[in-house]
Amino acid sequence: MEMDKASLLASISCLTSEAQAFKKNGSSDKATRYEVRTAALALADALEFPVEQALRIVFESTPPLIALRIAFEGGFLNHFGGGETQTADSLSAITGADRTLIARIFRILTASKTVDEIGVDSYAANDLTRAFLMPGIGDANTHGCDNVNPIFAKLPEYLSQMDWVNPDTYSMGPHVFTFGRPLWKRLESEPHKSALFNKIMSAFKQNRENWVDIFPFEERLQNSVPADQVLVINIAGGVGHRLRDFKLKFPWASGRAVLQDQKHVLPTTESNSKAFADLQECDIETMAHDIFKPQPVQGARYYFFSAIFHGRPNSACLELLRNTAPALKKDYSRILINDFVIPEKGANLFQASFDLWMMADSTGQERTLREWNELFDACGLKLVEVHTLGVDSVLEVELA
Ligand SMILES: C[S@@+](CC[C@H](N)C(=O)[O-])C[C@H]1O[C@@H](n2cnc3c(N)ncnc32)[C@H](O)[C@@H]1O
Questions:
Q1: Residues 125, 67: one domain?
Q2: What is the tally of structural domains in the chain?
Q3: Which of 189-198, 235-244, 248-257 is least confident?
Q4: How many helices (DSSP H) and strands (DSSP E) are in the chain?
């Protein structure tokens, strides 16, 4: 029997409550919730005819993100603390922006559920607003709008000019095509962009499984490393937040922990006193190191890379592995790589979208198991095991 609108809405409302309970009871991991959510989206799609769906995607995908970026830039979202509500008039008085403009931007934010609409031109923050206001979360959208969207816009032209080859060089990659310089060079010369990027990297892990939970450290750390030798080096580890997670989870593990990155990124008392204090508290050493030079620390137990290979083309990954492999001690040292292993079939939209972000941002790419193995084989390395939790993996690699 065909359902009428009221009964369909009642069923959806009932399912919505069940989905909320499913999320809250904590027994469902992120990957499972993502899978169920994908099925729920199919329910929404079932209500549209294909042309409606196509045009909705075209017109509705970008404006919510641009409105959010505008709201950040205009400081419109900074005034909802402690359950306060605002109106277009009150925000206009506080920020000096035109109240009509504010109302137009908030129309998108409320329609996209980023902010609650509690009356005519009257708004309240909700959980999503608060999530976007957390350090690094809305900033990811700022980075996307300012640094990635301009590249996305030029990708078709770039790929056409490059005769449709898979991008594999930094120097002629999509970022350079759009901005004239690669991402890392731009960040080096623009400290505020670099600080924003590091903030995003620290916040971003809230959306991913943590490497310290993915790799079976409890079991592996039973064979202890002498206190004066290096247990783990986090290569290109940013401000050290992942190494800190390791030290906080395994404070009893013996051996040194070393954070490597570019000199200007490593925290100091002057550049980033909070991150510097965090490193000191966890007894993490810092060492400036260029990943395109040979690894100077020989015979460490673990050489750890997180979100590094996926942000680089194959040519650079080979260089990185060849710079690291000679430092490994046979049958002892391991390279640990925390990135996706994209399934050959059935990749979800999160992983597939990330692949395009990586292509645009730094000529990078997410890789399948076959593509990972091709890299290792070419460098005298072999994959020992892939450790996976949800959609996140740590690839364990040793000398062949
Ligand atoms: C995407 S971030 C990942 C940071 C960290 N591993 C994490 O998981 O949050 C890439 C890192 O590579 C570093 N990097 C880029 N080029 C580098 C180079 N030539 N030598 C050393 N580090 C580099 C950047 O400074 C940045 O911290």
A1: yes
A2: 4
A3: 189-198
A4: 19, 10
Measured in Å, residue 115 CA sits from the centre of ligand 1 at: 34
Instruction: For residues 216 and 221, give the distance between their C-alpha atoms in angstroms, rounded to a whole number.
Output: 9
Q: Among the three residues 133, 151, 171, which one is the final residue of a domain in this structure?
A: 133
Q: Which of 265, 271, 305 to mutate to test the pocket of ligand 1 (most atoms within 8 A of CB)?
A: 265
Report residue 1's pLDDT band, with 50, 70 and 90 as the boundaries: low
Q: How confident is the model at residue 188 (pLDDT cuts 50, 70, 90)?
A: confident
CB-ligand 1 contact for 265 (6 Å cutoff): yes
Pocket of ligand 1 contains residue 392 by CB under 6 Å: no
Cβ of 307 closer than 6 Å to ligand 1, yes or no, is yes
Residue 49 covered by a domain? no
Which one-letter DSSP state was computed for residue 268?
Answer: -
Tell whether pTM > 0.85. yes
**47-to-19, 39, 41, 97 alpha-carbon distances in Å:** 19, 14, 10, 39
- Which whole number is the average pLDDT over 7-36? 88
Answer yes or no: is the C-beta of 240 below 6 A from any ligand 1 atom.
no
